[in-house]
Amino acid sequence: MMSLQACQVVLLLVCVTATVHGAIHEIKQNGNRYKIEKVTDSSLKQALASLRQSAWNVKELDLSGNPLSQISAADLAPFTKLELLNLSSNVLYETLDLESLSTLRTLDLNNNYVQELLVGPSIETLHAANNNISRVSCSRGQGKKNIYLANNKITMLRDLDEGCRSRVQYLDLKLNEIDTVNFAELAASSDTLEHLNLQYNFIYDVKGQVVFAKLKTLDLSSNKLAFMGPEFQSAAGVTWISLRNNKLVLIEKTLRFSQNLEHFDLRGNGFHCGTLRDFFKNQRVQTVAKQTVKRLTGQNEEECTVPTLGHYGAYCCEDLPAPFADRLIALKRKEHALLSGQGSETERLECERENQARQREIAALKEQYRTVIDQVTLRKQAKITLEQKKKALDEQVSNGRRAHAELDGTLKQAVGQIELQHATEEQSPLQLLRAIVKRYEEMYVEQQSVQNNAIRDWDMYQHKETQLAEENARLKKLNGEADLALASANATLQELVVREQNLATQLG
Fold this sequence. Notes:
Blueprint (H helix, E strand, L loop, with lengths): L1 H10 L4 E5 L2 E8 L2 E5 L6 H6 L10 E3 L21 E3 L6 E6 L7 E3 L4 E7 L5 E3 L7 E4 L6 E4 L19 E5 L7 E3 L12 E3 L7 E3 L9 E3 L7 E2 L11 E3 L7 E2 L11 E3 L5 E2 H7 L3 H15 L12 E3 L2 E4 L4 H17 L5 H24 L6 H43 L11 H79 L1
Parallel strand pairs: 3-4, 4-5, 5-7, 6-8, 7-9, 8-10, 9-11, 11-12, 12-14, 13-15, 14-16, 16-18, 17-19, 18-20, 21-23
Antiparallel strand pairs: 1-2, 2-3, 22-23
Helix pairs in contact: 7-8
């Protein structure tokens, strides 16, 4: 024990081992920095309790590289001055709620399996790459934030709540699943945002305009954008911008960028030559673009994937009579061909290259944040990961069984409602479904037959009615003619009567 105290005093390093339920954890100290190794879910509370007397002194706590699958803010409540918490390279799952840690400034959560994250008002730096995060909540705070969420499941900027989008200085959302971006949703960071990374998403549309007064870098490379519209005036003051490997056809010719622009990369697009001619009337931007291509490739122009394409400035382009329509038709045809398995070899290879490039970026990101972990801990992490996957699969199976039972009940109810013959309790849902479909088809045929007969009867009735109307008109006409003839006969008779009377008078 004396040697341990001497180690604390002289080296400010503590090595404590404890056996709890068969697990051994080690605690190392360097001033107000503490690192706990070889700790598990079952020994975590004991390990943290062993620091309780020093809790007031703990500003940095490192729990990285352990097989922890769960941790709560309550476990860390005694550490009232905690500013940095490192939970990277564990196996944390589902929701992680650290909102009550009001002094926490830096959180490292890289390389876990977290789906939802809640942090407190003092957070300044959040590292949470390589998770499954689809939602982040930040308590309102006054400080600037740096948020790194590369390789997660974010689908839109609003997946970060209003607190997380306020006073952000660096926002990294590379390798997520975003398809549209509205700059207006970052309005609360208009005077703080300096770096915005949206590389390798699926963005096809950019909306909203905000004046980002301090924005220096904007990376929208490897997305699906077809139009660099007026919304990009939000980034007018940048010094570095990349929209490489998109589907760009047109650029808003009124866009203007700062005289401080140093990097402008638009390689790997499908421009209409006319839009480049109009846009690059700004000689300053064209010069920067050429310098960027020269610096990155060693060539004055980018290499075109299709040899027949021309160039304007440093970029490949093509004269298109109807730029958007032509590109849209081509993309839709390619999409249909690939989905139906009828795409050309060139199109298939292009699709594979895009996917492989994304996978390489993911692999590089995981390697970048890789933590050296001993084999025992790796095996424990693998075991917990498999257990979590088994749990998820069990839930899927359970949900599937419930859905199967509900479907079975619904089908049998349908059987009773339509009085289906030859349906038995032993039949599988698939057999019942086929029988029900067949019965409904039969009922449809019967109904169609009844409907056709009714239509035929109606047509016959309409025909008879037409005939009767025509006959009535004919009879009415004949009746009129008979009335005229009768009137004429009456007049003739009256005239004869008068003549008869006159003759009688003369003879008398």
